[in-house]
Design a protein that fits this description.
1 helix; 70 residues; alpha+beta; single chain
């Protein structure tokens, strides 16, 4: 794999993962216990941050539009 083929951002990673799993009826489950995230209000050195604490489960399910009920 060349450097140009490597994922460089979180959004690119999420898009690539979704693309690979769509159509396979895949489910990803994340379990969080006291995960602290500082979410910036913007970019730059003077941006303020909000602290988020994640406790619980997040499930991501992928499917093709053909799999959806009418």
């Amino acid at each position: 794999m060349t450097t140009e083929q490597h994922t460089k951002t979180w959004p690119d990673l999420a898009i690539g993962l979704y693309d690979r799993l769509t159509g396979r009826n895949a489910e990803i489950t994340y379990q969080f216990q006291g995960m602290n995230i500082d979410v910036p209000s913007g970019t730059g050195p003077n941006s303020e941050h909000a602290k988020w604490v994640l406790d619980g489960t997040m499930k991501i399910t992928t499917n093709d539009s053909d799999d959806r009920p009418n």
